Amino acid sequence: MSNSEHASRADGCCRLWPDVNTHFLSLKGLPPDAVPRTAAQQVLHPLLVGFDAIAGCELKEFYRFKMYLQRLPEAPVACPELIQVVAAFRCWVDFDYSGARALFIAHLQEYPGDVLTVFFVHMLDFCTGKTCDLVDVFEICDSSVDATHPLSSFYLGIKSFVLCERVEFEQARVLGLQAVAQRPDNIYAIHGVVHALHEQQQWAALCEFLEGCKDNWAFNPGMRMHIYWHLAIAYLMSSQYELSTATFREFYALKDFRYAKQDLDAVGFLWRLKLQNLEDRQFDELWQDLSILWSGSIGTSTSHFHNMHAAFAFAAADRPLLIDKLIAESDGFGIEPATQQVGVDVLNAIAFFARGAYAECYQILAASQSVWLRLGGSRAQRELLMKTMNMAQKMMPSHQPRVRLVNAL
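Below the sequence we write its predicted structure tokens.
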């Protein structure tokens, strides 16, 4: 086998449909003209669609994807690059997350240049609160994904975000900027830079960066709302209140349709805003709408990170009974035991906050702070819990004991 042939084989799934890779890893979904022409592509196409769906952690999407996977034979095609990937997805939809991850890792050990599969593992880690663990994948893949690799920018973008979650903020920023320099429209690399700047509290630099490259992210269907969320927060933290709320209204208007499940960033911004002034009623009507929209997720999500946002919406709408129902329906199905415990603790804390029982809220959040990362999401998104805990502490009667805090998100 020649060196070029070996390199192609080492790229695994990435070599099966090169025209789709950059579009998909740019978080634009699948190109509308992406028609499978080979047996491998006929399997890969629904794999990508199914993966994209289950990353939302909705039970219905798990079962929809599982039905497709059940129809595949054990060896789906005469294509070795797909065998372990399909097996990994079968574990994932069976909620065997560790089994899925082990199969993805085994695949990458054989195909260390497969950036597409690196992204699969990364999103599995993100959903299960293990984002930082991806460093073991980098140890496998670094030597095979150098600057000449066609998907190098996307690999660096993923790496940037993971390093940021590992509190290596400056290195994350540098890698993210390298990735953006290679491919300016790589929104996940832009995302990595923004998270690093957020963690470094460089709000002016964050605004300048996003304003300077807006054409490269503001039209991306997969992530534009989230990047707008970062910009709105940066304006808020820069005391540019009017610009911040205007940016929020701009990104919330980008929902695909009214009932689209795209309300997480709206809650993430508005709850921050509410904690600055609990008496502010400017968005009360929207909070009522959000509480209705989030009520459909009760009992349907495998993510306590999503449940946390639902609970904040219920709290802001003064509907603590919906938080109680959310807790009652959170029986741990599809959720790892350690995550289930911290998730229910957090939901209980938010329920106490909604009822004005601030001491109880504070005590629960302070006790669980060191394991919040199990919920998934990012440090920047989990800041909602820190800010809620700080507000609960502020609202507590002065005689309540204070718990020594650990700086962990």
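Residues 204 and 385 are 24 Å apart (CA to CA).
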